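dude i think i finally got it to work??
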Amino acid sequence: MSKKIKTYWVDEFGVKNYNTFYLLLVTLVVLYVIIALLSVPLVYFEANAEQANIKSYRDAFWVLQMSASTIGFGDYYPVTFEGRLIIAFMFYVGVGMVGFIGAQFVNKFVGFSDTNVKNRELRKQNAQILENNERLEKKVELLITQMSQLLNTEQKIVASEKDIIESEQAIIKTEKDIINKVK
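look at this
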């Protein structure tokens, strides 16, 4: 039963999180494919040169591997301009790729700079803040509605009080008129 390597997973926020093992495997494969391919022209340029010490595909592969890792033992080295260009190219490519591999190992075992975890935590906090904001907005809308209702009720009460005052004034006037007629 073969088990397929899961290249990435999508978290609850829709962000792709790549499998570290997969990234390491792909990087190593790409690195060694580049080394294997560049070994051919390196042997072509170096094999027949005067004072050349890279005479076989195996020697070229070894030199490129050492230059990619920046070790460079010095047992094999290019003597032609073209060979030096290939080695220089491999050095820069190798520094990036080997550095990436090293960073993945350190991150996996030490894990002090796991930005995926920090980003997920920040996304969760942002989601909670947005949820709280929505609840607060609903509460504010409810308060505004209740205040409008209270204001309408208060306006009705003031209007009723005015009617009562007008009615009382009318009663007082009527009483005065009756008192004046009785006199």
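The chain has two domains: 8-111, 114-183.
im so relieved honestly
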